[in-house]
Amino acid sequence: MLVVQDHPTTAAEPQDLLGQAALAGVLIGHYQAVQLRQLAAYAAATEGDEFACLEVATQLHLSDRAAQRRLKFARTVVERLPQTLAALDQGWIEEYKAQLIADAVAELSDDHALAVEAQVLDKAGQQTPTQLRNALARVVLAVDPEGAEERRTQRVRGRRVDAYPTEPGMAALTIHHTAEHIATAHAVIADRARALKALGNEPRTLQHIEADIALDLLFGTDTGSNRVVEVHLTMPAPGTAAAHPAEVDGLPVTAQAARELAAEATSWRWLRTDPHTGAVVDLTAPSYTPPQWLKTFVQVRDRTCRYPGCTRRARRCDVDHRIPWPTGATCDANCQCLCRRHHRAKHDGGWQVRTLGRDRLEWTSPLGFTHVVEPEPVTAPSEWDPDPPPF
Q1: Burial 125-135 (b: 16+ CB within 10 A, else e)
Q2: Quick check: 316 pLDDT over 50?
Q3: Do 373 and 307 meet the contact criterion of CB atoms below 8 Å apart?
């Protein structure tokens, strides 16, 4: 039987406190699974009763709509995602991750839902919600490419702009559009913000500049419209199965959306990957500072910061030497993308990292906890022989 201390003692070591917190999470997951099974059984027993959700709402102190969503979620997990329910019951994943999986498969057939579950569940426990959400998007595109393209076409008709208040005196403007257009728009904003910050004498933070440039673009007052902006498009090469999804700056898109974006490109820089592993080849430079071609190469390979759970885009990270130069070479095997905060954690915060085989990293925290970061292939492994690039 698992035992968690209700009241931590002042003499407890920090690592013991975190261990007890993690153990509490396991117990929480178990009892959440118990509740979901009961709710699913209740929903099945009262199917057709439009007022059945009111009992749930009053018993669990939820709104009527929240109770309806809770019942739907319970039935989805219990009836369509048995391994997800088992993982929650064992405390391997948290309920909000089970919710992400349920939401991702909501429009899929039962067979496709099980295929998605099988591909994402092994890593879900170690992923952050953002990482899991991105993984789900990629797998859904790969498992059901035709359906994904149909849903994309339908959702394009639902593109919109929303404005809503946040903190007092502040508000947010959100643009709901296709992933490839949003990725490109964000690249435009980020590129111009970095260029302006690089000029110096700029008191605003990079985030402030990005927000101001976004409004300048909307108001038509931006003066950087002649700059060339680059986005990283990863797409199936000729001869691959249409099931392989594509990505634009790390955002999963359908293969058709990638082909449409590729048709608009004015120039290309092509990086071939190993079709069997999805990995790229080794490149080395003779100096401490990685040249632009190596920097781009590492950014495309890593996609995000290589710290556990960090999803900051690689193009906005530092290129760090795992083994300090000149002991360690300036090459892709010794270079990794780290955001500035986690770069500093490695050098100044007591965090240590070592390689477990190619591109598989083990981070050790100052308290002695270890976290393994698995590499993400740039392209999906396959059995085809690569053809020359289409450009």
Answers
A1: ebbeeebbbbb
A2: yes
A3: yes
Instruction: Return the domain boundaries, the chain.
Output: 26-144, 160-219, 284-373
- CA 272 from centre of chain: 23
Q: In the 8-state DSSP scheme, what is residue 167?
A: S
Residue type, 134: N
Amino acid at 97: K
Does residue 200 contact residue 194 with C-beta atoms inside 8 Å? no
Q: Would you say 234 and 379 are in contact if contact means Cβ atoms under 8 Å apart? A: yes
Residues in the chain, total:
391
pLDDT, average across residues 232-249: 63
Please write the tens of the pLDDT for every residue from 5-59. 666 666 678 888 888 888 999 999 999 999 999 999 999 999 988 888 888 988 8
Do 85 and 53 meet the contact criterion of CB atoms below 8 Å apart? no
Residues in Cβ contact with 221 at an 8 Å cutoff, skipping those fewer than 6 apart: none
Question: Cα separation of 157 and 149, whole Å?
Answer: 13
* DSSP conformational letter for 304: B
Asked if 259 and 234 touch (Cβ cutoff 8 Å), the reply is no
**In whole numbers, what is the pLDDT of the chain averaged over residues?**
83
DSSP-derived 3-state class of residue 353: strand
Cβ-Cβ contacts under 8 Å for 193 (sequence gap 6 or more): 206, 209, 210, 213
Amino acid identity of residue 74, one-letter, is A
Most confident of 88-97, 186-195, 323-332: 88-97
The span from the CA of 233 to the CA of 266, in Å, is 13
DSSP string, 340-352: HHHHHHHHHSS-E
Q: Output the pLDDT for position 4.
A: 62
Report helix, strand and coil shares of the chain as percent, to nearest 5.
45, 10, 40
Phi-psi sector, 218: left (phi>0), alpha (psi -120 to 50), beta: alpha
Mark 292-310 as b/e (b = at least 16 C-beta within 10 Å). Answer: eebbbbbbbbbbbbbbbeb
